[in-house]
Amino acid sequence: MESRPESPPQGKREHRKQQDSPAIAKLRALLGKELRVTIGDGRIFLGNFACTDKELNIVMTQVYEFPVGFQDDHLVENGRFVGMLMFPWRHITAIEVHIQSLGEDAESDEYS
């Protein structure tokens, strides 16, 4: 009978000791931040960045969808809560981060 290697104890994983690349560090800094994603058909989604994958798909939580041509002053009236979404990279035309969620300008309600 062949001997199988022991699996690591549950809940404990080996962490890489390597330093993150600058691109990975930027992505980590965006985790949990509010993003505005625009897709090819013009719809806009606001939500919190949760993760991405090797194919560059984006997953967001607490997402609100806004129809084409919405006005900023009517955001709440026109928005629809959709929960969690995964955006295939090929449908994304723009991604912007909410400046307040970066902590750069507490008075600003803008995306960059």
Automatic annotation (TrEMBL):
Any one of the GO CC terms: NatC complex
Region (Disordered): 1-21
Protein name (database record): Uncharacterized protein
